[in-house]
Amino acid sequence: xxxxAKLQLRQSQSLVMTPQLMQSIRLLQFxxxxxxxFIDDEIERNPLLERAEPQDDAASDQSQKIEAExxxxxxxxxxxxxxxxxSAEAISDKLxxxxxxxFPDDPGTSERLGPDLTxxxxxxSGNGASSLSxxxxxxxxxxxxxxxxxxxxxxxxxxxxxxxxxxxxxxxADGLDETGYLRGDLAEIAARLGTDAAAVRKVLAVCQTxxxxxxxARDLAECLSLQLAVRDRLDPAxxxxxxxxxxxxxxxxxxxxxxxxxxxxxxxxxxxxxRALDPRPGMAFSGGxxxxxxxxxxxxxxxxxxxxxxxxxxxxxxxxxxHIYFAQVSPQAKNQAEKDFLAECLQNANWLTxxxxxxxxxxxxxxxxxxxxxxxxxxxxxxxxxxxNLRTVADAIGMHESTVSRVTANKYMLTPRGVFExxxxxxxxxxxxxxxxxxxxxxxxxxxxxxxxEEKPVDVLSDDAIVDMLRESGVDIxxxxxxxxxxxxxxxxxxxxxREKRALASAGR
Length: 509
What we know:
- 45% of the residues lie in helices and 7% in strands.
- It has 509 residues and is of the alpha+beta class.
- The strands form 3 sheets. Strands 2-3-5-4-7-8 form a 6-stranded mixed β-sheet, with helices on one face.
- Helix 14 (336-373) packs across helix 16.
- It is extended, with a radius of gyration of 32 Å.
């Protein structure tokens, strides 16, 4: 049979991962700070985007608020101004795909949020960007943080007059890690600089006198020794203790007393001095100012016993599309390139506003379902935290599991019991010994911690004993699981706890 070429027409459907869809996916998992930075960049690139000024909120406060009743969410309110409503007419025909492709299971804003919840969505207010010339005081400008390299470099310049020694010290400073430890090999440093190891050790001895004490140490024992030497507490007994840190980690106090030649009271004093030292002296220069946690969702109790779930207005950026400016500049476009640029700016601006709108609604829906599922936790505490996974929430709100995973990443919820990451409410399931409802792993951890905190010095609980007590209370758990949870909470074994309690009891007498 002869081979021949022929044409076939085939029609199929597929989801194309367009730049707009990728942007919407990224917006879902952005934190509040990351979202603010992203919007600032978009406003700088797109002349049709601007932040809503505070006065824009006063005129249309009622039209900016969306309140979802227990049975259905309102569909006539919206997060954006009327002139910024997304519509098919406002977007160029060049739009390559639809946002519904990202949320194929989302039926829209009128979907029910749940029969047992009252969810309120308040628009952001007062989040507009003010001019750089307004409200900036010289006292508000933070000085640049001093790095570890800068701090050490200043001391090197003062400590060494010889250029050769200063060169060696600078090379040693380059070998410091963020904790202040020297990770380089002295022989390799000497060979690289063309000098002998004795000269490098001499320079290192001077560098180890720098502030803060403990810099340029090559291991933990040397770091502690340098700090004890500055305090004039590096006596023979303390040297023996520092040289046997592995026994200290195992809480083998009897062996330490014998090696150091001290009694229990002196050993406890020595341990208190060790705890007062800084095992990572360089970390004071490694980090900048940390961002405060801002809750994305707020949960409050109502008078009828239900819960009000609303988005935090401070985490909802207000972005407007300037259609007036677009109408003014569009007729002045001189060529096709300028027309395409304006059309693309309008398309991207409308897409961004709708993506932010959908992001806020999705966070609200996921948080509302979490509150519905974990109602007992909000009322009674961690002991009533139910086992929950992403699929359960996704099926309940009609979304894909991956969407719920992105929404719960780095998002926080403010509840009457504190601020919790949304991922906190998703815990593994531990079976009940009597065939009842399963227990949350987080509640079991809390129960283990309570049992250990309440144990007496003469009756330290082993892992097997904890297993028996948990099974009596209806938790079917294995001993290795108890050990894993205990180690995850940095609680030592029963043998180590017994040694420590005996030592403390002897010191008390």
